[in-house]
Amino acid sequence: AAGCSKSASGQKAPEASLPELSRVLQTWAMTKGTYPSDLNELTNFPTLRGKRLPTAPPGKKLAIDPATRQVVFTDQ
User: Fold this and answer.
1) Helix or strand run (H / E) with residue 60
2) How far apart are CA 5 and CA 19, in angstroms?
3) pTM of the predicted model, to two decimals?
4) Which of 13, 31, 47, 53 is 20 to 30 A from residue 70's alpha carbon, by CA?
5) Exposure of 55 by Cβ count < 10 A (0-12 exposed, 13-18 middle, 19+ buried)?
6) Is residue 59 within 8 Å of 43, Cβ to Cβ?
7) Is the dihedral of CA 16, 52, 46, 21 positive or negative?
8) Is residue 28 within 8 Å of 36, Cβ to Cβ?
C-alpha cells in the first residue's frame, strides 16, 4: 500500500544517507537547541520516517563530528 514503510517482500527499511542525516541534525539542533543523545532519534524525524541509520563499515561507527556538526563515520 502507498505510504507503507514495509514492502510486500519484507525488505528492510531503506537507509538514510549521511547528507540526509546531517540536514535533519541541523534542523533538530535549531528547533530543540541541542543535539540528540542517540543518533537513532533522528529516524523519528518526519523527513526520515520509514528509514533507518546506515550500516557502518567494519571498524567504523556513526557519530556527530563536533567541528563540522555533520553526521559522519568515525573510527570505533
Assistant:
1) strand 60-65
2) 21
3) 0.80
4) 13
5) exposed
6) no
7) negative
8) yes
All three cell numbers of 30, joined, read: 535549531
Amino acid letter, residue 28:
W
Measured distance CA(57)–CA(68) in Å, rounded? 21
Compute the distance between CA of residue 12 and CA of residue 38 in angstroms, rounded to an integer.
21
Distance between CA atoms of 65 and 60, rounded to whole angstroms? 13
Written as one letter, the residue type at 21 is L
Cell of 45: 524525524
Say if residues 63 and 42 touch (Cβ distance below 8 Å): no
pLDDT digits (tens, 9 = 90+) for 12-35: 889 999 999 999 999 999 999 999
CB atoms within 10 A of CB 54: 16
